[in-house]
Amino acid sequence: MRPTDALALIPGAEPFSHIGSSTGVLLCHGFTGSPYSMRPWAEYLAEAGFTVELPRLPGHGTTWQDMATTSSDDWYSAVEETLLDLARRCGEVFVMGLSMGGALSLRLAQEHPDLVTGVVVVNPSLTVDDRRLPIIAPIRHLVARALPSTPGIGADVALAQDGEGGYERVPTAAAATLPKLWREVQEGMSGLRVPILAYRSTQDHVVGPRSLRILARRAVNTRLTVHLLHDSYHVATLDHDAATIFEGSLAFVREHSRSGEGAEG
Predict the structure, then answer these.
(1) Is 80 exceeded by the pLDDT of residue 227?
(2) Active site includes 74?
(3) What pTM, to 2 d.p., does this model score?
(4) Quick check: is 114 catalytic?
(5) Which member of 66, 156, 204, 239 is catalytic?
(6) Distance CA 195, CA 184 (A)
(7) 56 — phi, psi (to 5°)?
(8) Dihedral pair phi/psi, residue 43, rounded to 5°
(9) CA-closest candidate to residue 182, choices 205, 161, 210
(10) Is 205 known to be catalytic?
């Protein structure tokens, strides 16, 4: 256990776990966020009868200083470990993610095509609109000493609420490891074989439209379905269109379930 694992969690940042049917669902939250942004979605799928796991990524849900000691490799390792555990317990697994969690979900499908039955992504983050980030990635430790953190964008939610359980500061060292994840996901696009359902907010102040264009252009060997969300911002899982996402993901699982079980709630 890392020493920082003993840090107090942000309220609502606790991981979520539910034992249900032999169909498993793994949910991945976003960069600087926490399970808070995904909990309503996880609870909805649990109520539908599925086995659901929503882990807290390393360094998230505590302090930005804690997150500064982690990298995209750590976040991927955490969701991969959860996927392998779910695959041992379930007959099939669907992976779903928000923002960076979308990138992690797609990477899991690329690396474990035999374990992932389908993927649902919400405003997936697959590239960067700030062109400086790839440049500073190789010298992230030097940059982090001079500028340990930058202001966060805040809760990008159209619906008035208290937040999304994330950080108000972005740790520079951790952010500079994102290009490695993006590059791996982009390079592995042709290896995607499972069906993908993508939701894209037309007003997103965090992730620009380039990410979805990359997915649509490069995921040539799979079936990609895209739905636009007109009433939500980036964290659409907590916004006006949340029910659309939840119900759509449930229908997606039932349509593509290999077992034909389609857990009924």
Answers:
(1) yes
(2) no
(3) 0.90
(4) no
(5) 204
(6) 19
(7) -95, 120
(8) -65, -35
(9) 210
(10) no
